Amino acid sequence: MRFIINEHSIEADVDVRTSLLDLLRDHLGLTGTKKGCNQGACGACTVLVDGERINSCLALAVQYQDREILTIEGLGTIGDLHPLQAAFIEYDGFQCGYCTPGQICSAVAMIGEIRRGLPSALTEDLALEQIGFSEDEIRERMSGNLCRCGAYNGIIEAIRATYAEESAQEREAAA
């Protein structure tokens, strides 16, 4: 099977019953994606496929051949962190760090969802041109990613700060 992972074409000979999570961790050595519950309930295994977040423990690898798969390893490097990675450090968005890769991947996708105007369970007016980015909105959209340490306040602040900074940069560029 051929996969596009973190912008690299990769061939892998795995059983068709192999989950995307097990392909990443056990066959390709990309251990940033974590195996938490292995039942799709915790979000530790969240990765991006074609820009959308998925729980990789629930996905068969064979379903994602030739699609753009992005893991935490593909978001940034030690010398060049993704803005959300830097914000998680600045705002103490983690304690033990186990859930952090899934939280960050989920937050990247969530910001894209809001920019595209996709509603959440809290969206009251679907005709709004821009959906708000309130703490409640972030909590609702991130509810599929659990943190056993309870670092939610730092996670929320990291996401809000990153979104506010990116929005300010976009307004500056448009002016």
Automatic annotation (TrEMBL):
List GO terms (cellular component aspect). Answer: periplasmic space
Judging by the UniProt lineage, the source's domain of life is Bacteria
UniProt key word Iron: yes
The alphabetized UniProt keywords are: 2Fe-2S, Iron, Iron-sulfur, Metal-binding, Oxidoreductase
Q: Name one Pfam family in it.
A: Fer2
Q: Which SUPFAM superfamilies match?
A: 2Fe-2S ferredoxin-like, CO dehydrogenase ISP C-domain like
Q: Which GO terms describe its molecular function?
A: 2 iron, 2 sulfur cluster binding; metal ion binding; oxidoreductase activity, acting on the aldehyde or oxo group of donors
Outline the extent of the 2Fe-2S ferredoxin-type domain: 1-75
Determine if Nucleotide-binding is one of this entry's keywords.
Answer: no
Protein name listed in UniProt: 2Fe-2S iron-sulfur cluster binding domain-containing protein
Q: What is the lineage of its organism?
A: Bacteria, Pseudomonadati, Pseudomonadota, Alphaproteobacteria, Sphingomonadales
